[in-house]
Amino acid sequence: MTTTSASTSGAGVFDDITASDSSLRRFLHGLPGVDQVGAEARAASLGTRSIKTTAKAFAIDLAIRMVDLTTLEGQDTHGKVRALASKAMHPDPADPTCPMTAAVCVYPDMVATAKQTLGSSGVKVAAVATAFPSGRAALDIKLADTRDAVEAGADEIDMVIDRGAFLSGRYLEVYEEIVAVKEACGDAHLKIIFETGELQTYDNVRRASWLGMLAGGHFIKTSTGKVQPAATPPVTMIMLEAVRDFREQTGQMVGVKPAGGIKTTKDAIKYLVMVNEVAGPDWLDPDWFRFGASTLLNDLLMQRTKMATGRYSGPDYFTLD
Amino acid sequence: MARIDVKKTYKLYIGGQFPRSESGRSYVVNDAKGNLMANAAQASRKDARDAVTAARAAFGGWSSRTAYNRSQVVYRIAEVLEGRRDQFVAELRTSEGVTSARANAAVDAAIDRLVWYAGWADKITQVVSSANPVAGPYFNISTPEPTGVVAVVAPTGPLLGLVSVVAPIITTGNTCVVIASEAHPLTSITLGEVMATSDLPGGVVNVLTGSVAEIAPWLASHMDVNGIDLTGVTDPELATSLEVAAADNLKRVRRAPDGEVDWLQTPGTDRLTDWLETKTVWHPIGI
């Protein structure tokens, strides 16, 4: 099976589906329904695996490499973004073997600062655009927001879908908006945030996942982190099933990013088990799976230190961010 | 009709909750005559880690309460303990096999000890703080601050010994993780129930039951523990290795006592001052 990235808008075979609102609705509502009880039980059972010693060490390093280190606060300053970018490059300054995180995730006006600090280190800059987190703005404003971030040097754009339009069933409108934003992204990768906490049902999560993939997103992402519940194991599992099925049908691979509420190493490892079991080992790579998190990194570092030194570490020994 | 006994399940006391051990283990506790008394939870290193996390989370709120308020809370523990004295007398008699008079004396002393330390909460600062004369236009003031999270290996005395080591630690604003007496763990958990119902915020005192030799090294080497009280360590080799492990993050250590301690004696203030740091402030005069 080929593993090319989703680089074209739509997926060729699905051109008929996205031709009109009614055909798109027919397709999305024709997707098999999600068995809520079954999905929750399956997600819970995948969380019971015991991952120890060398497997745990591998999982911790992989999880660190998958972190999109995030700061999305009204109180963000350039100084804080610089500090966060430095931390992304050297998560544990005391240990040079500690890998870098995948990216830092900031608001568009902070992209230039982050880019300047990160330089050519390899850590990417992701920017949330399109009137994040609500997405309640006119399309041209959203596109201007996106272009602004790309021009400032963002490697990845995290957009939010119009949940109001999605929930009222105006799927083509959501689709066309994603396509327009993708065009505005240029070479930057596009992550599509569904805000699953607002989508009400697992069926809607599955529909949104397919909609996002049809529109050509490189990543589908659960949440903004501003709405509770944020990422949950069942929701992430449904999205992983969607990207797996999408690759089976089109040969194109799409990444998944759970964001918000993943705070401990234990949680992160549960997600990695789920990725391996549901989507497959091909997704166990920072190019195809990310964690949107800020506090998670410190817990990963504490566990890493515990494994290296054999004694429990404490939050005093890592930077607050 | 014969009634079925309602036996009590003795669990751990962590973060204001009474969870079973994460490991699922338990061990048999016998009474003084060697008959089965109950099963106690056998805590693992992960329970110890969880307890430290709970103690750390509770430290901010507890240490920033006024000394007067902490005094009230410690006094409240004494009040609730007084209300349950019969239960403690009965437990001490069964587990240690002591006479009614001795058990009563121990409970009395434990209650009095709590009241005694409660009184110290807003007075110890006056004893150990100072206004220092300096050669410059500054007020120079030293005041005590709590050390942080203190791990405690409790002595064998299941009630009085435990109260005597825990009360001074929490009175000054520290939080603690206690490894209860291995031989007599049950009274410690009953004392946890007293604390859970006496305005003491969850996590200020956490009680683990199980093997001292198994759990204590993890607490001694834990980088997020600021002090360790070795009062209940009887094995000199273990005491030495715990002190060595504690040196890694410069924990404050209270060494194991030489020989038996008579807990009925009125204590000095050393158990209070052991877990205090000194903060010195230079404040310009005239601003």
TrEMBL record, chain A:
Q: Please name the source species.
A: Nocardioides currus
State its Enzyme Commission number(s).
Answer: 4.1.2.4
What the entry lists under SUPFAM superfamilies is as follows: Aldolase (SSF51569)
Q: Which reaction does it catalyse?
A: 2-deoxy-D-ribose 5-phosphate = D-glyceraldehyde 3-phosphate + acetaldehyde
- Write down what this protein is called: Deoxyribose-phosphate aldolase
Q: Does the keyword Lyase apply?
A: yes
Which InterPro entries does the entry link to?
Answer: Aldolase_TIM, DeoC, DeoC/FbaB/LacD_aldolase
Q: Would the keyword Lyase be found if you checked this record's keyword annotation?
A: yes
Quote the cellular component terms of the Gene Ontology held in the record.
cytoplasm
Report the pathway entry.
Carbohydrate degradation; 2-deoxy-D-ribose 1-phosphate degradation; D-glyceraldehyde 3-phosphate and acetaldehyde from 2-deoxy-alpha-D-ribose 1-phosphate: step 2/2
Identify its protein family: Belongs to the DeoC/FbaB aldolase family. DeoC type 2 subfamily.
What GO terms are given for molecular function?
deoxyribose-phosphate aldolase activity
- GO terms (BP aspect): carbohydrate catabolic process; deoxyribonucleotide catabolic process
Keyword list, A-Z: Lyase, Schiff base
Q: Which domain of life is it from?
A: Bacteria
Automatic annotation (TrEMBL), chain B:
This chain's source organism reads Nocardioides currus
What keywords are annotated for this sequence in UniProt?
A: Oxidoreductase
What residue ranges are annotated as transmembrane?
A: none
Among the Pfam families in the record, one is: Aldedh
User: Which Gene3D superfamilies does UniProt cross-reference here?
Assistant: Aldehyde Dehydrogenase, Chain A, domain 1 (3.40.605.10)
Which lineage is the organism of this entry classified under, starting from the top rank? Bacteria, Bacillati, Actinomycetota, Actinomycetes, Propionibacteriales
The name under which this protein is listed is Aldehyde dehydrogenase
> What terms describe the molecular function in GO for this protein?
oxidoreductase activity
Every Aldehyde dehydrogenase domain range? 22-253
